[in-house]
Design a protein that fits this description.
Elements (H helix, E strand, L loop, with lengths): L2 E8 L2 E8 L1 H18 L12 H32 L8 E3 L14 E8 L14 E5 L4 H15 L1 E4 L8 E10 L11 E7 L19 E5 H4 L2 H10 L7 H4 L2 E13 L5 H7 L8 H35 L6 H10 L7 H27 L6 H16 L9 H11 L2 H23 L2 E5 L2 H14 L1
Parallel strand pairs: 5-11
Antiparallel strand pairs: 1-2, 2-4, 3-4, 6-10, 7-8, 7-10, 9-10
Helix pairs in contact: 1-2, 3-8, 8-13, 11-12, 11-13
């Protein structure tokens, strides 16, 4: 009968010694050999009539190895379950040499493994932290800009001969080039559509008078201000945080020049945007736009509180890790072997991620944070409305139900949605535990705080 003993070999670090008796694996080994004998197709012998000795000679070593390892794995898993040992990753074998298995001399075998134990810990007390909740109020300038954006988005596009102002829409082809405009072989090419006013103030005068088929050379960091540059770089598949990417040059070829005829501010337009709100006047429309703007900034402020919660828990929750085991485990993982220097360099980031995983698990278990199918269905609807730029839609329409039903059958979407919603619920729980101080701030100031934080990380 198999036995397993445990020895402590370090901080949160144990050694498990699995001793298996030959009676633990021998019956399964002999049965496997008989099965091979029945199925073997060897020239000179009728199927199922191959001598047992020949089968043992041909397959015995591999079959014995399989059965011994299967037995060890079974006993080890049973032990971990029965003892309720919470471990990181999988047990790592110690001095594992299967070459010593002798098919002609079945004996007792001993195998050793090391395991890293998950530590017990207490979560940092969120009520003792200092948190700030930023409050951005919608200004007339914000409302005017959003009203204009909505008018443009719903307006009719007409072709014009040349660029004559900031409101012109350009359909362009970005072609990666050098500073002289020579196209780079294998470089990025991408079609896009953008307003002239998206370019930096210093670039816009150079576009006046440009026509279809005209081209011009830009450097991303000079041609666009930060917000627009990040959007353009994302569309081009570049990293907005890489200064080298922002220094790239592109030849921009104009394929179409247009001008949007803004939608008139009337009841028809209001109902088009907000079909279920019965908005009749421009004043009510502007109030709704203001509500939407402040709702957006409130959600951004909540996200910022969530970020503060994340860092507070990470920095103030004390968790002791089995460092020796985890570093050994990191050395054994991946398609390419890591060096000890690489492991040392990656270890702080690795343990930070591991630490947050443990914190999140504890929060979920202790506070019964659950994700149900309706949560996932609602996320699918939100994404659909976001993609289509819709709000105030009748969610019971058949085509919306069909879309949601389709997404609920998409395994990847469901898994991603589950983790996203669970994370959101964790932070909403945390937000409810903090005593945040409200602080009024402008939209630009708040955006700078986010940009600095993102750049730092």
């Amino acid at each position: 009968m198999a036995t397993i003993t445990k020895e402590n070999i370090g901080l949160q670090h144990d050694k498990l010694i699995v001793l298996i008796d030959k009676s633990d694996y021998l019956p399964a080994f002999e049965k496997a050999l008989k099965d091979h004998s029945k199925k073997a197709n060897i020239p000179g012998f009728r199927k199922g009539m191959v001598p047992a000795g020949l089968i043992k000679k041909m397959y015995g070593s591999s079959v014995l190895t399989d059965e011994v390892l299967r037995t060890v794995d079974r006993e080890l898993n049973t032990y971990l379950q029965n003892e309720k040992l919470e471990i990181f990753a999988q047990p790592l074998p110690l001095d594992f040499n299967i070459q010593n298995l002798d098919v002609n001399n079945p004996v007792d075998y001993s195998f050793s493994f090391e395991v890293g134990l998950k530590p017990e810990f207490e979560l940092a007390d969120l009520s003792k932290g200092n948190f700030t909740r930023y409050k951005v109020e919608a200004t007339e300038e914000m409302i005017n800009a959003d009203v204009e954006r909505l008018q443009n988005r719903s307006g009719n596009m007409k072709d014009v001969e040349e660029v004559n102002g900031d409101e012109n829409v350009l359909n362009v082809n970005f072609i990666e080039a050098d500073a002289d405009g020579n196209e780079l072989e294998g470089g990025i090419t991408k079609d896009n559509s953008l307003l002239v006013k998206y370019f930096s103030e210093s670039t816009r005068p150079n576009l006046i008078g440009k026509k279809v088929a005209d081209s011009f050379i830009i450097q991303l960091k000079e041609a666009f201000d930060v917000k627009e540059r990040e959007w353009i770089m994302g569309d081009l598949g570049l990293n907005k945080d890489e200064s080298a990417d922002a220094e790239k040059y592109f030849k921009v070829v104009i394929t179409k020049v247009g001008l949007v005829e803004k939608k008139e501010l009337n009841e028809e337009f209001f109902n088009q945007l907000y079909p279920n709100l019965n908005i009749k006047t421009e004043e009510d429309f502007r109030n709704q736009v203001k509500t939407e703007i402040e709702k957006y900034w409130d959600s951004q402020a909540a996200n910022q509180v969530h970020d503060q919660v994340y860092h507070y828990l990470l920095e103030n929750t004390n968790i002791v890790f089995p460092e020796n085991f985890l570093k050994k485990w990191m050395l054994s993982q991946g398609e390419t072997t890591k060096t000890e220097e690489q492991v040392e360099k990656e270890f702080p980031s690795f343990t930070n991620q591991l630490k947050w995983t443990l914190i999140a698990e504890k929060l979920v278990n202790e506070n019964d944070i659950q994700v149900n199918p309706d949560d996932i269905r609602n996320l699918a609807k939100q994404q659909l409305f976001g993609y289509m730029g819709m709000s105030g839609m009748d969610e019971e329409q058949d085509w919306i139900k069909d879309y949601v039903d389709k997404m609920m059958k998409d395994k990847k979407f469901v898994e991603d949605a589950y983790h996203r919603i669970q994370t959101q619920k964790i932070f909403e729980w945390g937000e409810g535990k903090v005593n945040a101080t409200d602080k009024k701030i402008s939209g630009d100031e708040f955006t700078k705080i986010i940009e600095v934080h993102n750049h730092h990380h």
